[in-house]
Amino acid sequence: MSYFFSKMRDAIQKGLYFVINPFVRLLIKCGITPNMVTTIGLLGQIAGAVILVMAGYKVMTAGVHDYALVTLGGAVIIIFSLFDMLDGQVARLGNMVSRFGAFYDSVLDRYCELFCLGGISYYLIESGSLFGALVTFLAVVGSLMVSYTRARAEGLGLECKVGFMQRPERVVITCLSLLATGITGMCANYKGNGFSPDIILIIAMCILALFSNVTAFARMNHCRKQLQ
Question: Global pTM?
Answer without folding.
Answer: 0.89
